[in-house]
């Protein structure tokens, strides 16, 4: 009886050990499965997903496939400053150790190719990759043992919260010289690639415009002006603003127009003749001179001098007078080459940066050259030959070359004055041969005339030629009209627009019917009823004078009308002579919060970083994607497999011995009963 009791107890232990063996075998199989799916530390999240296990079972049945399990057709959200790193995991119905993939940036039509390798053939392969912002198309391909290629694709979206635009590379001080124009470039960034609104305040004489986009998010913009004359000299405190409709940035810039000393302008008097017989026996002529800083020839602020080639003939009446007065005699007969100069006084106050204008502000001189003939028998000049390269029938855009040769019996070199259809075009002097080039231009047709008048200062001669001009239509970029000296270059418009007016209610505005319909359609599109439908206007001009026909899209726009616009009405509008940048801030209101104002605002984590600001507040460190299958986990998994293996072997042997002992006990019990 005692031995039977021991046998029962051993049999009970045998059942417990079988349960333990079953549990250990399950742990062993599970560990092998995890290790199998994580070759080379490739990341696969083991979640008990029945699909992956099902795919393995399908492979057992001989069905081949390739399936992207990560990423999925969804939106992945990232924070500003993060790398767009995602897990790529692909399962297959056949052993695979190499995977080719193509990632396409759908928005910008850019692609990149890559490859993932496993040390050994596996039914799952994957790793981390950096996606593009916005829409992505991931396509993978793999080849089974028979050479058959399988593919799978997935489209997904990478989303970030909207961030503020930034103005960069804009100097605090910009200098431009009088009589030149400003063209200063700066860079701005908007990583969301939004449509940006750019402005400068106040306007005139400076304007701002987007110039060119690079890298999709980098915008080069231009601060520009027309030619800056004397009245524009001075300091301008400007604000450049940039907004995406939600956030904005702004920069203050001081633009200085540096005054320069303008040289005197001396009016040409042309060739002169003193005929000792008659009323032209005396030279009595005042040369007209103007100077922006020192007045004209009568201001007594200018100095003049005169010089002669080959000896002095006469002197000026006084140094600050431009009057030429001379009574000639028979002893003075001859031809004289004369130089007349006007000298100003320079600037009274010189800007310290005037050197960028290639001068120092000191006095400048301007001179003219002319010839004086003294004769007692004056004879008229003549055109001894002329030639036109083109026949009398010419196309409007065809260049005409008109060549004349002059002669004067008194050895004077006559001046020639050229006229087109009676309008003065050019004067040539100091040469006996003139070449006049002219193009009538597109849009011009019919009979036209070119005339050359030559003179010695007293007597004249002329030559004239008619041309039958055939019409050549103008392109949209051609200015039309004639030009001397050759055909003109293509004219590119450069609009300069003033501030938008305060919004006026459309139903109470007096405007052209076509403009009324244009604004009404815009209001309807934006959902403004007749009480809120407003109109704004502004004046625009083309700085390059290419066209005077400015489109209505540049000078008219709809707006949300409110009777008393202000900085607290919750509406982005214009008032007080300028326009708000964002609702109730910027322009006539207090500055908008920005990522460059050195103030903790607009949800920033720290001053001007984090939140909507592109700048990350944290210390910059390599962005290494976390691994969901670390070496520690891998080693632990191997340890579990090894321990489970030994315990399974131990339990199998023990169960075998227990079964053998059980048989022996049953046999002995049987023998005992038989006795």
| CATH architect. name of the largest domain | Sandwich
SS-derived structural category: alpha+beta
List unreliable stretches of 5+ residues.
1-7, 37-61, 619-634
Q: Which strand-content bin applies to the residues? A: 35-45%
Rg measurement, Å: 46 Å
Helix content: 10-25%
Please state the oligomeric state of the protein chains shown: single chain
Strand runs, count? 39
Rounded mean pLDDT score: 85
- Structural domain tally: 5
Please summarize what this structure is.
This protein is 16% helix and 39% strand.
3D architecture notes:
The chain is of the alpha+beta class and 675 residues long. It folds into 5 domains: 80 residues; 121 residues, Sandwich (Immunoglobulin-like); 111 residues, Cadherins (Immunoglobulin-like, Sandwich); 103 residues, Immunoglobulins (Immunoglobulin-like), CATH 2.60.40; 58 residues, no CATH class. It has 5 helices and 39 strands. The strands form 11 sheets. Strands 1, 2, 3, 4, 5 and 6 form a 6-stranded mixed sheet that branches. A 5-stranded mixed sheet has the order 25-31-30-27-28, with no helix packed on it. The N terminus is likely disordered.
List the helices and strands and how they pair.
Layout: H1 2-36, H2 50-60, E1 66-70, E2 75-77, E3 85-105, E4 110-130, E5 134-143, E6 149-159, E7 166-168, E8 173-177, E9 183-189, E10 197-201, E11 206-214, E12 218-225, E13 234-243, E14 248-258, E15 265-266, E16 272-275, E17 282-286, E18 289-291, E19 295-296, E20 303-308, E21 323-327, E22 334-343, E23 365-375, E24 382-388, E25 393-395, E26 399-407, E27 415-420, E28 423-428, E29 433-439, E30 446-455, E31 460-470, E32 483-484, E33 495-497, E34 504-505, H3 513-526, E35 533-537, E36 540-542, H4 552-555, E37 556-560, E38 574-575, E39 578-579, H5 631-674
Helix pairs in contact: 1-5
């Amino acid at each position: 009886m005692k031995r039977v009791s021991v046998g029962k107890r051993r049999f009970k232990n045998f059942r417990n050990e079988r349960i333990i063996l079953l549990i250990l075998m399950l742990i062993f199989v599970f560990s092998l499965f995890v290790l199998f799916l994580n070759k080379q530390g490739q990341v696969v999240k083991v979640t008990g997903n029945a699909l992956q296990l099902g795919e393995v079972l399908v492979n057992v049945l001989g069905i081949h496939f390739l399936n992207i399990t990560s990423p999925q057709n969804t939106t992945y959200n990232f924070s500003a400053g993060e790398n767009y790193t995602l897990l790529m995991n692909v399962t297959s119905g056949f052993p695979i150790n190499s995977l080719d993939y193509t990632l396409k940036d759908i928005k910008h039509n850019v692609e990149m190719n890559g490859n993932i390798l496993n040390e050994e053939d596996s039914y799952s392969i994957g790793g981390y990759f950096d996606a593009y912002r916005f829409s992505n198309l991931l396509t993978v391909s793999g080849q089974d043992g028979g050479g058959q290629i399988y593919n799978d694709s997935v489209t997904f979206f990478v989303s970030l919260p909207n961030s503020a635009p930034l103005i960069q590379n804009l100097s605090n001080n910009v200098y431009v010289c009088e009589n030149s124009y400003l063209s200063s470039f700066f860079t701005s960034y908007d990583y969301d690639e939004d449509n940006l609104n750019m402005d400068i305040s106040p306007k005139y004489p400076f304007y701002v415009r987007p110039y060119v986009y690079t890298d999709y998010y980098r915008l080069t913009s231009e601060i520009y002006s027309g030619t800056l004359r004397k009245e524009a000299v001075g300091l301008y405190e400007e604000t450049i603003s940039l907004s995406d409709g939600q956030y904005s940035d702004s920069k203050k810039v001081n633009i200085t127009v540096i005054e320069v000393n303008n040289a005197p302008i001396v009016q040409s008097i042309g060739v002169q003749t003193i005929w000792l017989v008659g009323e032209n026996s005396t030279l009595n002529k005042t040369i007209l001179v103007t100077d922006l800083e020192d007045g004209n020839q009568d201001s007594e602020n200018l100095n003049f001098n005169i010089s002669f080639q080959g000896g002095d003939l006469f002197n000026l009446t006084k140094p600050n007078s431009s009057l030429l007065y001379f009574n000639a005699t028979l002893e003075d007969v001859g031809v004289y080459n004369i130089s007349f100069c006007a000298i100003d006084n320079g600037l009274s106050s010189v800007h310290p940066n005037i050197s960028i204008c290639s001068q120092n502000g000191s006095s400048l001189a301007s001179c003219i050259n002319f010839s004086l003939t003294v004769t007692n028998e004056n004879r008229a000049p003549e055109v001894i030959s002329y030639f036109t390269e083109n026949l009398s029938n010419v196309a409007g855009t065809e260049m005409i070359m008109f060549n004349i040769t002059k002669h004067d019996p008194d050895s004077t070199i006559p001046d020639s004055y050229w006229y087109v259809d009676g309008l003065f075009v050019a004067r040539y002097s100091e040469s006996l041969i003139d070449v006049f080039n002219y193009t009538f231009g597109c849009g011009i047709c019919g009979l036209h005339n070119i005339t050359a008048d030559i003179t010695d200062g007293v007597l004249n001669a002329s030559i004239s030629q008619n041309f039958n001009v055939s019409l050549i239509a103008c392109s949209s970029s051609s200015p039309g009209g004639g030009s001397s000296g050759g055909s003109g270059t293509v004219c590119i418009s450069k609009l300069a627009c003033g501030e938008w007016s305060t919004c006026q209610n459309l139903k109470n505005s007096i405007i052209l019917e076509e403009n009324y319909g244009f604004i009404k359609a815009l209001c309807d599109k934006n959902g403004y009823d007749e009480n809120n439908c407003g109109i704004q206007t502004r004046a625009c001009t083309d700085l390059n004078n290419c066209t005077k026909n400015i489109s209505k899209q540049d000078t008219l726009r709809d707006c949300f009308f409110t009777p008393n616009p202000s900085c607290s009405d919750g509406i982005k509008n214009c008032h007080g002579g300028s326009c708000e940048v964002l609702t109730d801030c910027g322009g006539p209101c207090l500055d908008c919060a920005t990522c460059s104002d050195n103030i903790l605002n607009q949800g920033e984590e720290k001053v001007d970083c984090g939140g909507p600001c592109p700048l990350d507040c944290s210390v910059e460190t390599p962005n290494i994607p976390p691994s969901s299958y670390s070496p520690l986990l891998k080693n632990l998994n191997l340890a579990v497999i090894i321990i489970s293996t030994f315990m399974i072997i131990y339990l199998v042997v023990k169960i075998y011995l227990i079964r053998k002992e059980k048989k022996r006990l049953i046999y002995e019990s049987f023998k005992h009963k038989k006795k």
